[in-house]
Amino acid sequence: MNLYLVFALVTLAMGGVAWVFVYPLLSGERHTERRMASVARSEPMAPRPTRAAQRSRREQVQGTLNEIEERQKKAKRQSLAARISRAGLTWSKRRFFLTAGVFGLVAFIGVLAAGPGLLAALGAGFAAGCGLPLWLLSFLKKRRLARFLDGFPDAVDVIVRGIKAGLPLLDSLKLIAEESREPIRGEFRAIIETQAIGMPLGEACLRLYERMPVPEANFFGIVVFIQQRSGGNLSEALGNLSRVLRDRKKMKAKIQAMSMEAKASATIIGSLPLAVMTLVYITSPNYISILFTEPLGHAMLAGSAIWMGMGVLVMRKMINFDF
């Protein structure tokens, strides 16, 4: 009986030893514990950028902005070719001067045939030859800039969606150059063509401001140029730019709506003397004809025209807001 008891105790002890030392090896518990320990082991966190690194990046961005500012100061000198290009025309300088000469000649012959005299004809010809073509360029430029600003926020949104979808920036720009309307299509096509001949994409986008001298184009060029130089999240930066552009567009529309009353008042005040003079001439021509027949009347008309012109310019300056 004692022998069986000893045998049972020995067998139980051997089973316990096997359970403690052998079973974990056969069941894979040791491997599981090592795997869990490796997963649970705390990895060292990536070190945060030091103040020196942040300062270096800030200095790099500041240096880039200073470089952009210097370039824009040099680009502010407007040549005649640049003014013609910004107006959306493909004229050469020769064609522009010929057109100005035709305007001046037509005005000179028309005023000379009307009979005011040679001096008045020369003045009208000079004003038409020198002032009218430049005014036409300014008018066409403003109209083209207004069309560009009207569709530019939508173009930036398309670029942001393309980048978020995985397209490269150049492919997104090509999409704008193919699908947008003028003048946005032509300007982005110029960016792509400039990049195709070897210029970096950031500098090509930065030159958009030279052809479209508006703050919105300047913002876009700076964002892309800095991202190409210093890196960063381009989709987030362009998304913020899109919101800024839309806010500026809303503010501009609000300013135009609030200033319409003042513009209407200025138009009425500016046209009232001419309207009164016309009505007096129709009803009582002898009463007002002295202004056109006497030298004193000519001087009074000239002085009135000068004062009225100064008043119109002052009112125009007061009701036009630049932001």
What does it look like?
The protein is mostly helical and 323 residues long. It is 84% helix and 0% strand. It has helices at residues 2-21, 23-27, 29-40, 51-75, 80-86, 93-114, 118-164, 169-179, 184-196, 201-206, 208-211, 215-230, 234-283, 285-288, 290-293, 295-319. Helix 7 (118-164) runs antiparallel to helix 13, helix 12 packs antiparallel against helix 13 and helix 13 (234-283) runs antiparallel to helix 16.
Task: Itemize the secondary structure elements and their pairings.
Elements (H helix, E strand, L loop, with lengths): L1 H20 L1 H5 L1 H12 L10 H25 L4 H7 L6 H22 L3 H47 L4 H11 L4 H13 L4 H6 L1 H4 L3 H16 L3 H50 L1 H4 L1 H4 L1 H25 L4
Helix pairs in contact: 4-12, 6-7, 7-8, 7-13, 8-9, 12-13, 13-16
Radius of gyration: 39 Å
Backbone structural class: mainly alpha
* Helix proportion range: over 70%
Tertiary shape? elongated
Give the termini separation. Answer: 109 Å
Q: Tell me the number of strands.
A: 0
Q: What's the tally of helices?
A: 16
Reading the helices and strands in chain order gives HHHHHHHHHHHHHHHH
Low-confidence stretches are 39-47
Amount of beta strand: under 5%
Quick one: biggest sheet? none
**Mean pLDDT figure:** 77
Q: What quaternary form is this?
A: single chain
